[in-house]
Write a structure and sequence with these properties.
Layout lengths: L1 H10 L2 E6 L25 E6 L10 E6 L3 E9 L10 H8 L4 E5 L5 E2 L2 E2 L5 H22 L4 E13 L1 H10 L13 E5 L4 E3 L2 E2 L18 E6 L21 H6 L5 E6 L15 H7 L10 H20 L3 H8 L8 E9 L6
Parallel strand pairs: 4-5, 4-8, 8-9, 9-12, 12-13
Antiparallel strand pairs: 1-14, 2-3, 3-5, 6-7, 10-11, 13-14
Length: 348
């Protein structure tokens, strides 16, 4: 596989691969092959909860980080609509345990005690995201031990749901606040850009023109098969409606971009188990969810993200290309998988 990737890099060929689900890959003893990226890594981790008063943008930040002295790539992940960053801690730990620093700001809340509040507007969310990104060069290192170094030359931005759309807007330069950091990768987890094609949220990022995103960075788009299905048509419409979900986001990405759809899982199924609180009770019942255990979904999302980082930040493309070409290695069913790529892996 490595020789194949190297050969294609010289040719700089543009590929679009539409891969059907393949039969489960088995080893010689008949057992199913498991990639290490889908399991918790070998790097010990810990976390920091940074209070609002300790940040210049008055937002709390959750940081998951390795504890071994080294230089680590960084990903800033934005939470979904009306969700709490702590709902994603299993996913954050998975990513951090493979040697990455995860920065997860709490941009806004929708509930205070039993009282519901309207979320801030998406343009406001975008400005806060830009402030957090600009804080990273000075603020992040000040919170870490001296021997734990964030490598902001390998900075990715990502998000779930509405947060995924905000991550795209940030990477596209739509924030009024000028970015003082360079984004080198983009990770979108079931991104959503509004209630429908005719009712998008601002700023509008989708153009419905293929490959129209003005981005030259690698992108991984992870979608769900149940996200576009409503819980009930009149009261709870789909959380990731057709026309504004992962399908269109991938269609508008330039190469290199990957698209992975967890067929049997829903919009909230990558979050932790056993979440409590009024915000979770209300939001979780608004989206269609799989009846199956959620751990395989978290492992799949975490594994794709880790494999993506290894490919584009470390030049180790085998795991990522294996997932693309043999989707059945993932703990959750992936179908379809698409890959649009100019092979330039390991150049960031």
């Amino acid at each position: 596989m490595a020789k194949l990737v190297a050969t294609m890099a010289v040719a700089a060929v543009v590929l679009v691969i539409m891969l059907p689900l393949t039969p489960s890959e088995a080893q010689s003893d008949g057992t199913r092959r498991v990639l290490d990226v889908f399991e918790i890594g070998n790097v010990p981790t810990t976390y920091l909860q940074v209070n609002e008063s300790a940040t210049p943008f008055n937002k709390s930040v959750l940081i998951y980080k390795p504890t071994l002295p080294c230089l680590y790539p960084v990903i800033m992940l934005l939470h979904g609509t009306c969700l709490i960053n702590s709902f994603y801690t299993d996913l954050f730990q998975h990513i951090a345990s493979h040697g990455y620093i995860v920065v997860a700001p709490q941009i806004y809340y929708c509930f205070e005690g039993l009282f519901e509040m309207m979320p801030i507007s998406e343009p406001e969310e975008l400005e806060y995201a830009a402030e957090v990104a600009n804080w990273l060069p000075s603020g992040l290192q000040s919170l870490l031990p001296e021997n734990i170094k964030p490598d902001l030359h390998k900075l990715s931005v990502g998000g779930h749901s509405r947060g995924g759309k905000t991550a795209v807007a940030l990477a596209l330069g739509y924030a009024k606040t000028p970015l003082q950091v360079q984004i080198s990768g983009l990770v979108l987890i079931d991104p959503v850009a509004g209630a429908s094609k005719n009712n998008p949220t601002l700023p509008k990022v989708l153009t419905y023109i293929p490959h129209s995103f003005n981005l030259s960075i690698p992108v991984a788009v992870i979608g769900t098969g149940l996200g576009s299905q409503p819980v009930c048509w009149l009261v709870c419409p789909a959380c990731a409606p057709n026309g504004v979900n992962h399908v269109e986001f991938f269609n508008e990405c330039k190469a290199p971009a990957g698209h992975f759809v967890a067929t049997d899982y829903g919009h909230m199924d990558m979050l932790n188990d056993n979440i409590t609180g009024i915000d979770w009770i209300i939001t979780s019942h608004m989206c269609k969810s799989s009846p199956d255990p959620k751990k395989p979904m978290r492992q799949t999302v975490g594994g794709i993200i880790v494999a993506f980082f290894k490919a584009y930040f470390e030049g180790e493309s085998d795991d990522y290309m294996t997932i693309v070409q043999q989707p059945s290695v993932a703990p959750a069913k992936l179908d379809p998988v698409q890959f649009n790529n100019i092979i330039n892996i390991g150049t960031f």
